[in-house]
Structure formats: C-alpha cells, structure tokens
Specification:
Order of helices and strands of chain A: EEEHHEEEHEEEEHEEHEEEEHEHHEE
Largest interface: A-B, 49 and 48 residues
Number of domains of chain A: 2
Keywords (chains A, B): Hydrolase
Low-confidence stretches of chain A: none
Largest sheet of chain A: 6 strands, antiparallel
Oligomer: homodimer
Helix content of chain A: 10-25%
Radius of gyration of chain A: 19 Å
Organism (chains A, B): Shimia gijangensis
Strand content of chain A: 15-25%
Distance between the termini of chain A: 37 Å
CATH class of the largest domain in chain A: Alpha Beta
GO molecular function, one term (chains A, B): hydrolase activity
CATH architecture of the largest domain in chain A: Alpha-Beta Complex
Number of strands of chain A: 19
Pfam family, one (chains A, B): FAA_hydrolase
Structural class of chain A: alpha+beta
Mean pLDDT of chain A: 96
Shape of chain A: globular
Number of helices of chain A: 8
Protein name (chains A, B): Fumarylacetoacetate (FAA) hydrolase
CATH topology of the largest domain in chain A: Fumarylacetoacetate hydrolase, domain 2
C-alpha cells in the first residue's frame, strides 16, 4: 500500500492512503490519527490500512484527487533520522572534494550520522536559500522506516523491521560542512531540514525490485528541467538497509518511526548515469578540468527525484522542489 | 513550576505537576495529554499548568507522593536533542591529555552535535552495560527545552525561547567514541540513550541562580556513594544557552520541544571541585601520573546528579542510576 500525510491537522499531519496509480487518495483517520501513530502500532494498524487501501483501489471509498501540494513528508517529523553513506563512490568523490581520506575500514564499518528530524520539508515545498555562499546542494537518497528495533539486532533480524520505503532529498550546505566537520562533532548547521517523497510504500509495492535489503531500480533525477541522473539504487552500494539498521542498533534500541537513509545514491560509472548531488559533479569536473564549473543551487533552481516501477508508474510520487531566497 | 512525566501512559508519558518541596505530585492531564503537547502549545498551556501548580502548593488538588521510580525523563523522547560542549575546560583537558592544541575558533564557534532522542532513559533507570570494553561513562550536564525557534534567531532573541530547565546524564561509550569520531560523521554508537532529571522547571524556579543564559549553582555529583564533583555550572562556560540555541538555529528552524544541552559541566579548578565524567579524571591522572588509574563504569556502579537551591531543596530531583549488565 501507499501512504501519505496531508499537511493539514497537527504537526504530524493527517494520514491518507493513496491509489497505486497516484490518482486518488482517501483519509485514513478512521484507522489511526497520524502515520506516526501507525508506525508506532504497526502490527495492529497495518492490516486495517491495507483494508482501506484495497477499498480505495476498488472505488469503494470517498476520495480526493492526489495533490502533492497538499502533502507533507509522510512522517512530517520523526523521533529519529539516521542517514548513512552506503554508496562508497559518493563518499570517495566528496571526500576528495573536501581533501579528506577515506576511512580505513570504509568497506566493513558503515558511516551513519544522526540527522535533524524535528521538522522536515514537504515533498514539493520550496528549499530556503538564506545565503548563496553556503553552497546549497541536493542529495537523492532511498530511505526506510522501521518499527521498534531492539539493541543488538542482527542484520538478518533487521530485515523484518523495515516497514516502509520512501525517497529523500537530504539537503546539504557544502561550504558550511567543511569547517563544521573539521570540528569533529559531525553535521549540524550543514544539514538543514530534509524533504521526503510524497508517498511511502510497504515493501510489497516494489515487487521484485525490493530484495529485502535494497531497491533495484534507478533513481530519476531532474535538475532545472534536464536529466541529471539515472543512478541505479541497487548497484554499487556497499551496505544494505539491514546493515545500516544493525549498525544503528548496536548500542541502543531504535524507536518505531526511525528513518534510516542510504546516503546519496551513486554509481561507479557516473560518467554514464550521472549523479544525485552537485558536489559529485563538481568533483568530477575538478578532477577532469582542474576546477568546478557547476555552481551550487541558487533561488529559482529546481530539483526533482522520482522512481518508476516496471509498469512505468511513479512509486513514491516526485520530490519536486524549487529554491527560494529567504 | 516543576513538571514531570509518569512512565505510565504512552511513549510520551503522563504529565504531572510536582510540589516545590518534592513531596507531592498531581496529574496534569486535565490541562494537556503530555508534556510534549505542553511545550508545543506553551503559550496557551503554561498558564493553566501554573494554576494547577499553585493549587497543588495550596493543598487543593488530589495528589500522589513524589516517587521518582514512577517517572520517565520529563520528555521521555524528543524530536530534537542537540548537545553542546560549552565548558572549554573539559575540551582543554581532553586535548591536553592527547597533546593537541585547542582549535583556533573554540572561543567563538560553539561545538554542538545532533544526539539521539527517540527514547531516553528514566532518571533512576538502570544504565545497560552490554560490554565493559566499550568504556561506559557518565556526563553531568544542564539542559534547556525551547519552544519554536525560527531560523536565524539571534542570541538575544533566543533567551525568550528557553521555557524549561533540567539536568542530563549524557551517557558516553569512550572506547566506541574514538574510532567513531575519526570517521568524521560525529557520534552515533558512542552516545546511547541519555537520561534526564525527574523534574524540569520553569526558569523562575531558579530565582537569581538563573541569569537568562546560565545556572549559577554547583552540580552535585556522587559516584558510587562518594562525592565526585561540586562543579559550578555558572563558571567557566564559554557559551551560554542562548549562544547554543542561536548556533543551532543558524540554518534551520528548531521545533518546540528541542532540548539543548550544555555539555559536561567543568571548571578550571578541577583539582578542587572535581569532575562530571570519568574521562576528565582519567585525563588528569594521565597528565599527572602517565596513566589513568580510574576505570570506566561497570555493573553495580552508581551515579547521582543533583542541584540544590539556596534553600537546600533539590531543584530538579536527582538523576540516580545504577549500571546493570545487559
């Protein structure tokens, strides 16, 4: 099933089920007040939402036209957003750009940072650009939402805790990042509010494209109306989602509603498939030409992320954002 | 007023007002379902909670005996926990022990990391020790809870966003931390769930000890039943809470219910006043003797943090935790 949250209602939004073809959506408040409550009581609530979803598909529910402008991120806020860096080709390029070595154990020890999760941007919300000198960049990612994960959970056990899948635009401030990371406490100012796809889906919606650990489909990235990337999310990732979850749960429980991100989806053959952030392209230019011709985002720039199923239908709806001054 | 959350109820607990002398507490569910809801609607809810608090003091409310074993952290979970390192004497000791200079901008650019906030330990909950080789340590801190803080908020404006004050035990895994920080993404596995004091208070409860930016009182720290620290929270801090809030809000809004921590309370005259973590004591031993005699926490060890008002009454109640294997 496909789930989303209307912006209206409280800080956690109002839950809706969305039709597979993204034409209609129906209120799910008869089942649960918010999607946050749903994931916190998933065992009980999911079957009821499935029933509602089937009724929507069968045309047996009052419904609204699908309209992403009315939608928040599926979880408009979360108690935990932990973002990885599972595609090492991305890490290799951005570290080269920052003049930082790859960690010695990068092939065996996942990178994961604690992200801000108190208020996400909506999927088609403007991205505020306060200062163009901050180096505003997008990052196209896959993310999963878990139920309660106990401390010490194994990679194998972690698979069953993945309940929902979605896309993420992990917005980054590249020129704020370099001095911030040198201080040694990780990202804070350099990672303002992220945005997620309008829709999150249960793994079955992906069919064979979901392996239990990764999404075997390309992420379609359009920057300022032009193809920017068709990077395959199932290729060149060193750590699958269960690896990231087990890593996150090594020393503590993860509460239901935890969102785990893949990091920027990146392939080794970036000259063929493109990229999912500007920093990668700038580094490729720097390596090739000695300097980066591509500038960071400015007011008016647009970024769109989408993923199509084998039937050509958008799985998660599109993240589609415009940068605005302010 | 003094506020707390009973563990019973949902993941956000059940709100109570607590008497100034910490003898009684009364349900606040007639006003608001949870303390999280209270801080998210503070302007409307605070006066009603004040009225309830006055009724409790006047003996006009049904009440329970104060019992910290029934209490969760005041916010049992939060959408944001951002922890600083405002006492540079702590950082200076760390770097001195490692033979490393202080960063050039340490006096002007606050250190702040994004902490895990999906589930905090209760104030007298056991601290799980899965592996004694992880180097389990306590950190005694002051923390504040804000209402909604807009991006770009100034230090001066930040003062008015501090609505509640409390203590924190920011539990750290020292031997997990060093390899984790080298990776460059900040803390994740090395910072398991923190615990907070049983009670959070409005600033007026501190009287003259609250300056608008700092708490001018010593933090009383008892480790395994013995005095370990009487470190003054108003001395030797380079960044006050409004500085930390303004730093956190530079590139994004902070949602109501954000908890901002001071970092380990530390004074320059640590040989007189003691410390608020084991790592500092180990550093002092290392500088003096060439090696650290003090071991990290093991099952059975106990740690207690408390702060007394000028009248000798515990302001926040005591964080009082025992390490258990598990």
């Amino acid at each position: 099933m496909k789930l989303a949250s209307l912006k209206s209602g409280g800080r956690d939004g109002t839950p809706v089920v969305v039709s597979r073809d993204l034409s209609r959506m129906a209120l799910a408040t008869s089942v649960v007040p918010t999607l946050r409550d749903a994931i916190e009581n998933w065992g009980q609530v999911a079957p009821e939402l499935q029933t509602l979803s089937a009724q929507l598909e069968a045309g047996k529910l009052d419904s609204l036209p699908y309209d992403p402008t009315t939608l928040a991120s599926p979880l408009p806020r979360a108690f935990q957003w932990a973002d990885g860096s599972a595609y090492l080709s991305h890490m290799r390029l951005v570290r080269k750009a920052r003049g930082v070595e790859m960690p010695a154990n990068s092939q065996t020890d996942p990178m994961l940072y604690q992200g801000g999760s108190d208020a996400f941007l909506g999927p088609v919300d403007p991205i505020p650009c306060v200062d163009t000198d901050w180096g505003l960049d997008f990052e196209g990612e896959i993310a999963v939402i878990t139920d309660d994960v106990p401390m010490g959970c194994s990679t194998e056990q972690a698979k069953s805790h993945i309940k929902l899948i979605l896309l993420c635009n992990d917005i980054s401030l590249r020129h704020v990042m370099r001095p911030e990371l040198i201080k040694g406490f990780g990202f804070f100012q350099s990672k303002p509010a992220s945005a997620f796809s309008p829709i999150c889906v249960t793994p079955d919606e992906l069919g064979k494209a979901w392996t239990g650990g990764r999404v075997n489909l390309p992420l379609l990235t359009t920057y300022n109306g032009e193809d920017y990337g068709r990077v395959h999310a199932g290729k060149d990732l060193t750590f699958e989602f269960p690896d990231l979850i087990a890593h996150a749960a090594r020393t503590r429980d993860l509460a239901a509603g935890t969102i785990i991100g893949s990091g920027t989806v990146s392939n080794e053959d970036h000259d063929v498939v493109g990229s999912n952030c500007l920093a990668e392209k700038r580094m490729i230019e720097t390596i090739r030409d000695g300097n980066a011709a591509t500038r960071f985002m400015q007011p008016g720039d647009t970024i769109r992320f989408e993923m199509l199923g084998e039937d050509g239908v958008s799985i998660f709806g599109a993240i589609d954002q415009t940068v605005v001054a302010g």
